[in-house]
Amino acid sequence: MFVSAAVIGWVTTALVGHPFMGLTAFGAIALMGCVNAGAAYCQWRAVEISQSRTAVFTWADDLIAMGLGYAILSEQRYLTPTLVLGVVICVGCAVAMAFHKRAGSDEKSSRASPFALLGWVAAYSVIWGVAALVMRIYGLRATSIFWFATAWYTGAVLGALVIRYTSSEKEQGEPLTLKGLAGVFVLSTTIWAALALKYWASMLAPITVTQPVFQVSELVFPVLVGLFIFKEHQTLSHQGKLLLALATAGGIVIAFSY
Hints:
Layout: H1 2-16, H2 23-49, H3 51-56, H4 59-73, H5 81-99, H6 107-140, H7 145-166, H8 169-172, H9 178-204, H10 207-229, H11 238-255
Helix pairs in contact: 1-7, 1-9, 2-6, 2-7, 4-6, 4-10, 5-11, 6-9, 7-9, 10-11
Organism: Candidatus Uhrbacteria bacterium RIFCSPLOWO2_02_FULL_53_10
Protein name: EamA domain-containing protein
Keywords: Membrane, Transmembrane, Transmembrane helix
């Protein structure tokens, strides 16, 4: 998938003809993309445990990104009491949800999942928080969207290769069929476009403004997928559903605090 996204990046960059950003900038962004491949792996492992619980933790990377924005880019002026309220709601519900025992889950899953989930989520949240800062920094420098995405996914290919050759045969899975490759190309186009749009948003507004908006979308839609497509609502108690609803409300409060 990252290979296809990188190819899309190189082709589109060649077509638009934007001037090269320079080797230093290209290398720095590619390095971030390489590390981000590891974050994607961590997210996949977290989703393997629980799609809906992982979705509730979407506040983590946003909170880290906002903190870095305050500390490094001096975005404190955007901090409001309403934002603090929304963050408190999301954090409280997310932590409670991670340790919440799902109705009908077996003893082994209840004992192992919360701590395994927290480990994977913590890893990719830190990486994505730093990635948001990197996007904003290069956005302020008006670095080309096309070159940014190209450098990012070129680095992601290298990271994916490292994961590919260090993971077990079981994790590597079966070779893709022709139909599977076609599906990967569609997904690659989607993730390339998503990165380009997110970087564009980073060019237009500070982290403190963009991340809360991402917070709501990242929270609501994956939760719905986990609950209704993967049928996780069958193992989620009424208390768990209440926590999900409160976390969603907290995300909405954050998004509309500006």
